[in-house]
Write a structure and sequence with these properties.
Layout: E1 5-9, E2 16-20, E3 23-25, E4 28-30, H1 36-39, E5 50-56, E6 62-68, E7 76-82, E8 84-91, E9 102-108, E10 113-117, E11 121-127, E12 132-138, E13 147-149, H2 170-173
Antiparallel strand pairs: 1-2, 2-10, 3-4, 5-12, 6-11, 6-13, 7-10, 7-12, 8-9, 8-11
Length: about 190
């Protein structure tokens, strides 16, 4: 029997790197992207409710930092289907010993990795190549009135983006910086 996933912990509790096995032959390859049974403990009993696919055309583009407040807080599983991205999660959980700390991983089409980001984290990424395609699995429906975001260039977050920032959406660039009033997300 093939073990389709190897889970790797990160320095921030709850964040997991999922390494997917892949089978290669003369036709190409096979890899399992998701398995509810295998990953159910990480999903905390929730099911995948939404799947999104994005294309980021320009190297250096940043998307994020996005999250949703309860009751629409979500677990995300993020995968790079084409290109290369520096994918980042920021701990926003109230009372967490790593509150406002971040961790980033390299996701590429070649490394067969996915990033599991639990509830209470903001998520974003920077495209390290042009024409990056990303696949997102979410455990909650998108709810505009419960959406939150912070500015990815906020100096308080101490994020060192690996490339020169070439593009951000008007919406992402207008997201607020952190204030002392933000005490975290209560889950």
């Amino acid at each position: 029997m093939i073990n389709h996933f190897t889970l790797r912990s990160t320095p921030i509790e709850g964040l997991q790197l999922i390494e997917r096995s892949h089978l290669n032959d003369s036709r190409g390859f096979f890899t399992r992207m998701f398995c509810q049974h295998t990953l159910q403990n990480l999903l905390k009993g929730k099911s995948i409710r939404q799947v999104n696919h994005t294309l980021t055309r320009q190297k250096g583009t940043i998307r994020g930092l996005h999250f949703q407040y309860p009751p629409y807080a979500e677990v995300k599983i993020v995968t790079c289907l084409r290109g290369k991205v520096w994918d980042i999660a920021v701990d926003l959980r109230k009372g967490s010993p790593t509150f406002l700390h971040h961790h980033a991983v390299l996701l590429t089409q070649e490394n067969y990795r996915s990033y599991l980001i639990p509830e209470g984290f903001a998520h974003g990424f920077q495209a390290l190549t042009s024409d990056c395609e990303m696949l997102y699995l979410h455990t909650a429906d998108y709810a505009e009135t419960f959406e939150g975001a912070f500015n990815a260039l906020d100096p308080e977050l101490l994020i060192k983006w690996p490339e020169i920032v070439t593009e951000r959406s008007t919406r992402d660039a207008s997201h607020p910086m952190l204030t002392e009033d933000f005490q975290g997300i209560e889950l």
